[in-house]
Amino acid sequence: MSNLLELIALLWFLVCWLGYTEYSKRRAADRPCLSNTLDLYREDWMRVMLRRENRIADASVVGNLERNGAFFASSCLLILAGIITALGYTQEVMEVFSTMPFGTLPTREIWELRMVVLLVVFIYAFFKFTWSMRMYNFVSVMVGSAPPPDDTKTSPAGREAFARSAGNICNLAGDAFNLGLRSYYYALAVVGWFIHPIVFMAASTLVVVVLYRREFCSTALEALRAGKVFEEPLPGKAENSPKPKS
C-alpha cells in the first residue's frame, strides 16, 4: 500500500507537469498571458532595432538574456553533480535523513526513485537552458546581419519579414528559458516527496496554481498589457475575427 501511494504521487506529479505545460500552451492561443504578450514586445523590439543605426544596445540586451540562461544551466550542472554524489552514498544519506524530525524513511528503492526523478527534472532544465542560450546566439547573429536603416536594397516587406523571423527566434528562446525555469519550481515539489507522498502531491498542485496565477492573472501581465496598444488580435483569434465590409 505504501509503494502504491508513492506511485500515485509520482503519477500526479507527471499529470501536473505535463498537463499544465500542454494547457498553458493551448490557453495562450486565445487568452492574454505573459508568453504571448512578451512575444509581441519582442517583435516590436526587432522592428525598432532595424530603424537604429547603432545596435550596441540591442546586442547588449541579447547578451544579458543569454547570460541568464548560462547562469541557470551552470547551476543545473552543480545540482546534478550533488544528486549523483548522493546516489553513490544512498545508505549514508538515508541514515542522516532518519535523524530528522520530519518525514518517513522509505525503502532504498523508493528513495533512489525519488533521487532519479529529481535528477531527470534538472537534466530537462539543463537542456532547456542550453537550447535557450543557443537560440539567443542565433538572435545575436541576426542582429549583426540586420540591414542598416539606409539600405535601399531591402524592401519594407523584406524588413518586416526579417523582424518577424528574428522576433520568432527570440520568442522560442524565451519559451525554452521559461520551461527551464518552471523545472526549478517542479524540483521544489519533488523535494516535498522526501517528506511524504501527500506533501509531494500537495506541492505539485501548489506549483501549478502559482504558475497559472503568474502567467495568466499577475499584476506584471496587467502592467505589460497596459503599456501596449494591441492592434493585432491574439494568436488563434485572427481566423475568428469578423472581416471588414467592403
UniProtKB/TrEMBL annotation:
Pfam families: DUF599 (PF04654). The chain crosses the membrane at residues 70-90, 111-131, 184-212. It comes from the Bacteria. InterPro entries: DUF599. Keywords: Membrane, Transmembrane, Transmembrane helix. PANTHER family: OS09G0494600 PROTEIN, PTHR31881. This is DUF599 domain-containing protein. The lineage of its organism: Bacteria, Pseudomonadati, Pseudomonadota, Gammaproteobacteria, Pseudomonadales.
